[in-house]
Amino acid sequence: MKIAFGCDPNAAELKLGLMDYVKTLGHEAFDLGSDDPIYANVAFDLAKAVAAGEYDRGVLVCGTGIGVSIAANKVKGAYAACIHDVYQAQRAELSNHANIITMGSQVVGIELAKCMVKAYLENTYDPNGRSHVKLQRIYEYENEN
Fold first, then answer.
1. pTM here?
2. Is 62 a catalytic residue?
3. By Cβ atoms counted within 10 A, which residue in 55, 76, 108, 133 is the most buried?
């Protein structure tokens, strides 16, 4: 898979560590930036690229993961899930078909972050699952508004 990565300057170390890690899993990692102190800018750019299909999935990191999640979710077609544990990482894809995960460099360490990214990338959304109807409502609302 082609995975896009972005962060604010405070989270660059975690982002780079995760980029190296996903390469060991056989994925391509693309750096969409970390120099802009306005984290929303990199979140918007990454979310637009993922929503447009330039990348299969995205990973955004800031201090808490919350700000980049809010920003990314403003982009139509971007579905960012802020995660803090492996179960949330799995469910981000399995139940919610999130094309972006976010996390906080001040909340999780590198080893947990690696486990979460691995769990997220190992899972594939099942359109026949019980969450499909729920997600369709989100997509309908997005298209109506």
1. 0.95
2. yes
3. 55
